[in-house]
Design goal:
- The complex is a heterotrimer of chains A (183), B (394) and C (552).
- Chain B is 68% helix and 5% strand.
- Chain B is built from eleven helices and five strands, in the order ααααααβββββααααα.
- In chain B, helix 3 (77-99) packs antiparallel against helix 4, helix 3 packs across helix 5 (136-166) and helix 5 packs across helix 11 (362-385).
- Chain B starts with a helix and ends in a 9-residue tail after the last helix.
- The longest helix of chain C is centred in the first third of the chain and has 31 residues, at 126-156.
- The radius of gyration of chain C is 40 Å and the shape is elongated.
- In chain C, strands 4-5-22-23-3-24 form a six-stranded antiparallel sheet, with helices on one face. In chain C, strands 6, 11, 12, 13 and 21 form a five-stranded antiparallel sheet that branches. Chain C has a five-stranded antiparallel sheet with strand order 14-15-18-19-20, with no helix packed on it.
- Classes of the chains: A alpha/beta (183), B mainly alpha (394), C alpha+beta (552).
- The interface between B and C is large, with 77 and 69 residues.
C-alpha cells in the first residue's frame, strides 16, 4: 500500500513538473520567435486578404477594390519623384492594354501628391490606365508601403499573391499580370 | 535678498555646517572609549545638532530655489546632484537616530560635501523647464529616486568603514590595493573640483571652431586649457592653447580634456598626500574606525539596502516608467540611463539574495555595497556626461 | 525517498530537516549544527530531495538561487554592453545598409564589430530575450519550490516545540528561575501588549508576530512574473502598436493602424522662453543657452470614418473631439494614445508671385500658389494669365534638360510656367526657382517675381496602443507590495516553556532585525522573571555587549 502511494505521488510530481516546465518553455520560445518575426507580422504578407479601399481616379471614376472580385488586380503604388516608378510606367501602360481584356485590372495609386503634378506626369507619359491619388495616405498605411515603387498582385479571390518592391521590366509586368489572370 | 540669492546662501551655510560637523564627529570618534558609557554625549550631540542645522539650511536652499524657479529644483545636473547630496545627509541623520554611530557621520558627511562641491562645478543658473520636464512626475520620480540612491549610498559608507576596519593594511593583498584604489578615486573627484575651481578663478576661456561628425561647423568654448582639440579645430581666441593632439569627430575633446586635467590634478594631489603623510591614505584613516563595531556596521549596511532598495525601485524604475510613458510614449526604451537604473536594481537584488540565501555578510557584503555605489555614480556621471541619450542633461 | 516519522508522531515529507510539528532535528547533519538554518523552517525544499529524472534535474537547476543569481548577473552585464554604443533605435538610418554604414563611419572598426556581433540591437536579440525568459522560469520554479513547504511548515508548527529545536535557535536561554503559572500569564500579557499573537499549550507559549512578512519575497516574485508575462503578451498581434506620422498644419491624415481614425492638425504652437516675459531668474540661463523651448503642442481635431468604411474614404467623417497634444499630454481614444514627439518648423506652404514686365517692373497681377495643391491656371486682370505646367517640390537640377525632383516635400520648389499676355498670346515659358529664373526657350519680356511665402509647421506624432499596460502596472504594484512586505516588517517568534525538571527555556527567532526581537525579549524577561538569554551567533558582542547598545 505504502509503495503504490509513493509511486503515485512520484508520478504526480513528475507530471506536474513536466507540465509546468513545458508551459514555461513553450511560452518563452513562442515569445522570442514572435518578436523576431514581428517586422514581418506587422506588414501584409502573401496570402493575406487585400484590404479593401475606395478612391476616385483622375477621370472621376470611383474605384473600389472589392468591385474587382473575380478579376486579378495589378496594384501599383508610386510617386512622381521616384525614378524607377517613372521608368516602369510606359511598360505598365502597354501591358495594361494587353491584359484588361484578359480580366486583369490595373490601378496605380499615387502617394498624396497634387492633382497638377499627377496630371502633368500622366500627360507627359501618355498613360491610359486608371490612376488615383491617396490624399490622406490611408490606403498607403493599410498596405504598409515603404519603398516605392511597390506593386501588389491581387488574385481573383481577393488575396495577395505577390508583393514586388522595386522596378519591374516589361517582361516582369507581363509575367505578373499573367499570374493573376482569372482562370 | 531675493529668493535665488537666499537659496545660494543657504546652500553655502549648509556646506559649512557639514564641514564643521565632520570635525565634531571626528572628535566624538576620537574621544570615545569602549568602557565609558554615553561617551559621545558631548561631541556626538553637538555634531548631530550642527548636522541637523546644516540639513535645515539645505532644505531651505531647496525650498527657496523651488519658489524662485517655479518648479522642483531637480531639473539639471547641478540641481539633481545637490539634492542627492542633501538626501545623503538626510539618510544619515535617520540612520544615526536608530544606531547612534558618530563614525558613520565622520565618513558620510565628507562624501556629501564632495557630492555638493562636484555639483557646483556645473552650470548653476536657474533654468525654466523644457516641455519634456513639464510634469508633476519630475518632482515625484526624481526626488524618490534621489532618496533611494541616498539611502543605498549609506550602505556603501557603512561597508567602507567595515572594510577600513577589517582589512589588514600591513600585509600586501588584493583587498589592501582596492581599498586604496577607492581612496584614489575620491582624490580624483577632489582633483576635478580643484581643477575646475582653479581655472575658473583664473577666468580661463578659449574658443575654437571645429567640424562635427555630421560635417557641419560649430564653435566650442573650453574652460580649461585644451589638451585635446576637437576635429579640425581652429583657435578663435587669440593666444589660445594649442592642443597636443586632435581628436576624431567621434570624441568630444573638451570632455576628454577635462578628464585628463582631472587625472593630472588628482594624481598630483594624491602623490603630495602620500609624500606628506608617508603612509597610504587608507592607513591614515584606519585608526578612525578602530572603535566601530563591525557587526553594527554590517547591520547598518544591510538595513540601508533593505530600506533603500524599495524606495529606489519605486522612484528610479516604477515612477520613471510611468512618466516615460506619458512623455515619450513608451515606458521603456533601453536608453543608457534607463539601462543603468535597471542594472542598479538587478545588482542590489543580487546583493540581497547573496545576503539572505548565501549568507554573504561581513567583508563580502561590504565590497558589494561599495560596488553598488560605484554603479550609481556611473549612472550619475558617465551616463549623463559621456553616453548619449534622451536623458543626458549636462 | 521515504517520509520521515518523527518521535513525536508527525509524518514529515522526505528530506525534512526539522520536524514540522515539534521541531526535532531529523538527520545527523542537522543534529550536528549549533544553530539551525531557519530560512525555510527546516522544511524540505523539494528540489533538494528528488533528483532522478531529467525533468527533476532541469527543475532543480531552475530552482537554485545560485543559478538565478548568475542569470541576473548575465542580464546585468549584457545590458551594460548594450550601452557602450548607441543602439540601432537611436541611429538616424532606416535600412540595414545605412545602419551598417553609420556604425562604420562614426565608430570605425569597433563600430563595425559591434554591429556585426549584433550588439547594436542587443535588447531585441534572441539570446537576451532568452536570458530574461530563463529568469522568468527561475522565478516561477524557485518560488513554487520554497513557498509551498514554507507555508505548510508555518501552518503546522506546534506551540510546544522540543528542547532540541529550541536550543538550536540563535537566541536561547535556559535556567532555573522563579517561574510559575503566574509569570507565564504575565509573560503572555506582556507579549500581547507587544502585539504578538500568543498561543498556549500546557506549559508552553508561542508568541508570533508578522508572519505575513515571510511571504514578501514570494509576493514580489509573483509581481515580477506578472510583469514579465505582460511583456510577453506584446508579441501577440493586436496588443501593441507603435507608429509615427508627420502631420502638417491644415492637413487631415489617417492615423495608422487605428480603425478609421483621422487627425487634422489645426495648429502647431511652438513657444520659447523670452527674457522679457519670463521670470527674472531665468535670465542668466537664457543668456547662456540661447533658445530654451517652453512649450510645443499640436492642436488637433479627431475624426472617425463611418462604421465599416474602407481606406480612401474621406467624406462622412464624424467629428469626435478636439485636443491639444503636448509633451506629457497625449490625446487618448479607443485604447490608442497619440504623443507629441517631434516637429519641423516652417515648411513652405504657399508662395506668392507677381507677373511683371522685366524692364519696367510693372506688375500685372499677383497670385498665390498653394504648394500642396498648385492650380494649373491663374487668371489675372486684363487678359494676363499664368499657367503652371509642372511643379517640382524638391528641385535638384536638370538632367538632360529635364527638371528633377527628389521628393514630394517642398524643400526647394520650382515651377515650369507659361506667361500669357496680350503681347504674347502663345505664352512665354519660364522656369522659376527660389532665387533664380531660367528661360529655356529664349529671352522673355515678362517674368515671374517672387513676393512672399507662408510657412506651416509639421508635427511629428507617435501613435501607440498598448493593451499590456494594465498587466505591467499590476505586476509592478504587486512587486512593490511584496518588497515592502518583506523589507519593512519582520517575522518574530518567542518561545517560552516550563520544563518538567523545573527549568525554564526561552528562545527567539526573527528573519531580520535581531535588535528588536531582543528588546522585546528583554521586556518580557523583566516582567516574567525569565532566565537570561545568549545570542549564540554574535561572538563579537558576546565580549563587547555594551557596545551594541551604544556603539560608535
Amino acid at each position: 500500500m505504502e509503495v503504490s502511494k509513493l509511486a503515485q505521488s512520484k508520478k504526480r510530481r513528475f507530471y506536474m513538473r513536466t507540465a509546468i516546465l513545458a508551459v514555461l518553455v513553450v511560452a518563452i520560445v513562442f515569445t522570442v520567435y514572435s518578436n523576431l518575426n514581428k517586422e514581418k507580422n506587422a506588414v501584409l504578407q502573401v496570402g493575406d486578404k487585400a484590404p479593401d479601399f475606395v478612391l476616385v481616379d483622375m477621370d472621376g471614376t470611383e474605384r473600389r477594390l472589392s468591385d474587382y472580385k473575380g478579376q486579378g488586380v495589378f496594384l501599383n503604388f508610386w510617386g512622381t519623384w521616384c525614378k524607377p516608378c517613372a521608368k516602369e510606367m510606359p511598360a505598365m501602360d502597354n501591358q495594361y492594354g494587353e491584359y484588361t481584356d484578359q480580366g486583369v485590372q490595373t490601378l496605380a495609386i499615387n502617394i498624396g501628391e497634387s492633382d497638377l503634378k499627377v496630371n502633368s506626369f500622366l500627360n507627359r507619359y501618355g498613360l491610359t490606365f486608371p490612376i488615383a491619388i491617396d490624399r490622406n495616405k490611408s490606403v498607403m498605411e493599410s498596405y504598409n508601403i515603404d519603398p516605392l515603387p511597390t506593386t501588389f498582385l491581387i488574385n481573383p479571390e481577393g488575396k495577395i499573391e505577390k508583393i514586388i518592391k522595386g522596378e519591374m521590366t516589361e517582361q516582369d509586368i507581363a509575367n505578373f499580370m499573367d499570374q493573376i489572370k482569372p482562370s | 535678498m531675493d529668493m535665488a540669492s537666499l537659496s545660494s546662501t543657504l546652500l553655502f551655510v549648509a556646506f559649512v555646517a557639514y564641514l564643521i560637523a565632520t570635525f565634531l564627529f571626528g572628535g566624538a570618534v576620537k574621544s570615545s572609549n569602549s568602557k565609558t558609557t554615553k561617551s559621545f554625549e558631548r561631541w556626538g550631540k553637538l555634531a548631530i545638532t550642527v548636522t541637523i542645522l546644516g540639513f535645515i539650511a539645505n532644505l531651505g536652499y531647496f525650498i527657496t530655489r523651488w519658489i524662485a524657479a517655479g518648479h522642483a529644483p531637480v531639473s539639471n545636473l547641478f540641481e539633481f546632484t545637490t539634492a542627492f547630496g542633501m538626501m545623503v545627509v538626510g539618510a544619515f541623520i535617520l540612520i544615526y537616530f536608530i544606531y547612534k554611530t558618530p563614525a558613520l557621520g565622520l565618513f558620510a558627511l565628507p562624501i556629501a560635501l564632495i557630492i555638493i562641491a562636484y555639483a557646483s562645478m556645473f552650470p548653476t543658473e536657474i533654468t525654466p523647464l523644457i516641455p519634456a520636464l513639464k510634469s508633476y512626475w519630475l518632482t515625484i520620480h526624481v526626488i524618490t529616486a534621489a532618496m533611494g540612491e541616498a539611502i543605498l549610498a549609506i550602505s556603501a559608507v557603512a561597508g567602507f568603514i567595515y572594510l577600513l576596519k577589517n582589512i589588514d593594511l600591513t600585509k600586501k593583498s588584493k583587498e589592501r590595493f582596492w581599498i586604496e584604489a577607492v581612496m584614489f578615486v575620491l582624490v580624483l573627484v577632489i582633483g576635478f573640483i580643484v581643477a575646475t575651481v582653479s581655472f575658473s578663478l583664473a577666468d580661463y576661456k578659449a574658443e575654437y571652431s571645429y567640424i562635427s561628425k555630421d560635417e557641419s561647423q560649430h564653435n566650442i568654448e573650453y574652460t580649461m586649457p585644451a589638451l585635446f582639440g576637437m576635429n579640425e579645430s581652429v583657435a578663435l581666441t587669440e593666444g589660445a592653447f594649442e592642443p597636443i593632439a586632435e581628436m576624431p569627430p567621434l570624441v568630444n575633446a573638451k570632455k576628454l580634456t577635462t578628464v585628463v586635467w582631472t587625472i593630472l590634478f588628482g594624481t598630483v594631489i594624491y602623490i603630495l598626500l602620500r609624500l606628506i603623510l608617508r603612509k597610504r591614505i587608507a592607513t591614515v584613516l584606519q585608526p578612525l574606525t578602530k572603535k566601530s563595531n563591525s557587526q553594527l556596521m554590517d547591520e547598518i549596511g544591510y538595513r540601508a539596502v533593505l530600506i533603500g532598495f524599495p524606495v529606489f525601485t519605486l522612484g528610479a524604475l516604477i515612477f520613471a516608467m510611468i512618466w516615460a510613458h506619458e512623455a515619450w510614449s513608451r515606458f521603456w526604451g533601453w536608453d543608457p540611463k534607463e539601462v543603468w537604473a535597471l542594472i542598479t536594481f538587478l545588482f542590489y537584488a543580487v546583493f540581497l539574495h547573496l545576503r539572505l540565501s548565501k549568507g554573504w555578510d561581513g567583508k563580502r557584503s561590504a565590497w558589494i555595497a561599495l560596488i553598488g555605489f560605484i554603479i550609481i555614480m556611473f549612472n550619475l556621471i558617465a551616463v549623463n556626461l559621456i553616453l548619449a541619450g534622451l536623458h543626458s542633461y549636462a | 525517498m521515504d517520509k520521515i516519522v518523527c518521535t513525536c508522531g508527525n509524518v514529515n515529507p522526505a528530506g525534512t530537516e526539522l520536524c514540522e510539528s515539534c521541531g526535532r532535528p531529523l538527520n545527523e547533519e542537522t543534529k550536528e549544527k549549533k544553530i539551525v538554518d531557519m530560512r525555510y523552517e527546516g522544511s524540505a525544499r523539494r528540489s533538494q530531495t528528488y533528483n532522478k529524472t531529467i525533468i527533476d534535474k532541469v527543475w532543480n537547476f531552475f530552482s537554485s538561487v545560485k543559478v538565478g543569481m548568475w542569470i541576473i548577473v548575465a542580464i546585468l552585464i549584457a545590458a551594460a554592453i548594450g550601452t557602450i554604443l548607441p543602439q540601432v533605435f537611436y541611429v538616424p538610418a532606416t535600412n540595414e545598409t545605412d545602419i551598417a554604414a553609420y556604425y562604420e563611419r562614426i565608430y570605425g572598426t569597433f563600430g563595425t564589430l559591434y554591429y556585426q556581433l549584433g550588439l547594436s540591437d542587443l535588447y531585441s536579440s534572441w539570446w537576451f530575450q532568452g536570458l530574461v525568459g530563463m529568469l522568468g522560469i527561475s522565478l516561477v520554479i524557485a518560488s513554487l519550490d520554497r513557498v509551498i513547504p514554507l507555508y505548510k511548515s508555518l501552518k503546522k508548527q506546534k506551540t510546544k516545540r522540543h528542547i532540541s529545536f529550541l536550543k538550536r535557535q540563535r537566541v536561547f536561554g535556559i535556567g532555573k528561575t522563579d517561574v510559575s503559572e503566574e509569570s507565564l500569564l504575565s509573560a503572555e500579557e506582556k507579549l500581547k501588549e507587544l502585539k504578538y499573537k500568543v498561543k498556549r499549550e500546557g506549559n508552553a507559549i508561542l508568541a508570533e508576530r508578522g508572519r505575513f512578512s515571510r511571504w514578501g519575497p514570494y509576493v514580489n516574485h509573483l509581481g515580477l512574473i506578472i510583469f514579465l508575462f505582460g511583456v510577453m503578451l506584446r508579441a501577440l498581434p493586436g496588443f501593441y502598436v507603435d507608429e509615427t506620422m508627420w502631420l502638417r498644419e491644415g492637413e487631415t491624415l489617417y492615423v495608422p493602424e487605428t480603425d478609421g481614425y483621422f487627425l487634422e492638425s489645426k495648429e502647431f504652437i511652438y513657444e520659447t522662453y523670452s527674457k522679457e516675459e519670463s521670470k527674472e531668474v531665468y535670465g542668466e540661463a537664457i543668456d547662456r543657452v540661447g533658445t530654451i523651448a517652453k512649450n510645443y503642442q499640436t492642436d488637433v481635431a479627431l475624426y472617425k470614418g463611418p462604421e465599416g468604411s474602407v481606406a480612401g474614404h474621406t467624406e462622412e467623417l464624424t467629428f469626435e473631439k478636439e485636443a491639444s497634444i503636448q509633451v506629457n499630454k497625449p490625446v487618448k481614444f479607443d485604447n490608442f494614445s497619440v504623443f507629441q514627439m517631434d516637429f519641423r518648423l516652417d515648411e513652405l506652404a504657399t508662395m506668392t508671385f507677381q507677373l511683371q514686365d522685366k524692364e519696367t517692373q510693372k506688375s500685372y497681377g499677383e497670385f498665390k500658389i498653394d504648394l500642396a495643391d498648385p492650380q494649373p491656371l491663374y487668371e489675372l486682370d486684363k487678359g494676363y494669365k499664368v499657367e503652371v505646367m509642372d511643379y517640382y517640390a524638391d528641385f535638384t537640377g536638370f538632367e538632360e534638360g529635364i527638371p528633377q525632383s527628389k521628393s514630394p516635400l517642398p524643400n526647394n520648389p520650382a515651377f515650369l510656367i507659361k506667361m500669357y499676355s496680350p503681347e504674347f498670346p502663345k505664352g512665354e515659358t519660364s522656369f522659376v526657382m527660389i532665387k533664380e529664373t531660367v528661360e529655356p526657350l529664349g529671352e522673355n519680356q515678362h517674368k515671374i517675381a517672387f513676393q512672399s511665402v507662408e510657412t506651416r509647421d509639421v508635427s511629428g506624432l507617435t501613435v501607440r496602443k498598448d493593451l499590456t499596460l494594465p498587466l505591467l502596472a499590476l505586476g509592478g504594484l504587486i512587486f512593490m507590495i511584496g518588497v515592502a512586505q518583506g523589507s519593512y516588517w519582520n517575522h518574530r517568534r518567542i518561545w517560552v516553556q516550563l520544563l518538567e525538571d523545573g527549568q525554564t527555556v526561552i528562545a527567539a527567532h526573527t528573519n531580520k532585525n535581531w535588535l528588536s526581537v531582543k528588546r522585546d525579549l528583554d521586556k518580557v524577561t523583566e516582567v516574567a522573571h525569565l532566565p537570561k538569554y545568549l545570542d549564540q551567533q554574535d561572538t563579537d558582542s558576546l565580549e563587547e555587549k555594551v557596545d551594541i547598545e551604544e556603539g560608535v
